[in-house]
């Protein structure tokens, strides 16, 4: 649509004074054609926007890694969460739990969604009921990772949340590195 409107402005000469040929791309014939070719390429791009990944856009333009997991049916997930700033931070993972099976859920990650329910401070005390409601069915989770998969660095907005949750970012990073090598923390789980 933008491409069509721009083509109309570039190829059909607009009345003099509408676009300045010196200062405007649309007023210059050659620059206008170059701009049209860029718009044509942009119209061919496929964007896959994951809105679950937008929770920190108010704080940072850099997007964290976001995982959607389906775990085997279980009565307990095997994680302990603490609520800080409206977000559920994974504070511990039981070694023998379904959450610990593949090492994808780590201490410091944020539990964004559980079985289709958005997890916020209002969910405090209701997570067990959400698990019981889905009893016998696969457990669906959306996790916002505390670290970047490419660099291994902690995601900057999560560092502040870790401090507020009284979790040491260096300890969280060490546990995440251990999880990448198949080890998980041995904290007791509440969920």
TrEMBL record:
<protein>
    <recommendedName>
        <fullName>PDZ domain-containing protein</fullName>
    </recommendedName>
</protein>
<dbReference type="InterPro" id="IPR001478">
    <property type="entry name" value="PDZ"/>
</dbReference>
<feature type="domain" description="PDZ">
    <location>
        <begin position="66"/>
        <end position="133"/>
    </location>
</feature>
<dbReference type="InterPro" id="IPR036034">
    <property type="entry name" value="PDZ_sf"/>
</dbReference>
